[in-house]
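Justification of resources, computational component.

The compute hours requested in this renewal are based largely on the per-chain cost of generating structure records like the one below. Each record pairs the submitted sequence with a full structure-token output. That output is archived, and it is also reused by downstream analysis tasks.
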Amino acid sequence: MGGEIILETKGLTKEFKGFVAVQDVSLRVRRGSIHALIGPNGAGKTTCFNLLTHFLEPTRGQIFYNGREITGASPASIARMGLARSFQISAVFPHLSVLENVRIALQRKRGGSFDFWRSGRVLEQLNGKARELIEAVGLAQFEATAAVELPYGRKRALEIATTLALEPEMMLLDEPTAGMTHEDVERISALIRKVAVNRTVLMVEHNLSVVQHLSDRITVLQRGEILAEGDYQSVSQNPDVIQAYMGASHG
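The structure output for this chain reads:
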């Protein structure tokens, strides 16, 4: 199972009126791995993520998930297949409590309409599962806190919990530690490692220390193309990668 490819792109390309944002990207993500997508600003990382979850349509190329072509599928149907994008798919309602937010995400997983009208017994069953997820992301003491009142790093943990409620086989994390204090970075890194135990994670991340400590494999993009790929040791010593980062350090 470890060697199996869960997500693959072939010749993925996105053009915007003459500007090529992503060029001929062929990516292979192994099942059960943490795979990082890195590169200097403007490298095409976020565009690539948007293509994978079909918030953008590719100009050319194909996307395969679990051996099935998903090019052209809707973001909602891709999420139902088990490929969920955190911070985009997850809907965090600012004035609802942590528990209520996770419970709503669990209702989405069940499909159909929300259970606002259902008996207390049904909602109580959801509370049990919601509390497990809240515990898993370290938010047990914030269960009754409104999302808007959470510190930034804790809000990110809640977003991961609502994504986990969808029971994804693979999670796409878009800059999970952006804008965080050192303490929050440590906490979210530990959380990513924990949730990756029984699923695949593909993440865009600027913090190279996080990438170094979490990633099994790294793909480096530059100007929309794959510049290098491998483990952190080989990628960090690649002269082209060093040049790309040094040359873009003020960009």
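The chain has a mean pLDDT of 88. Residues 90-165 form one domain.
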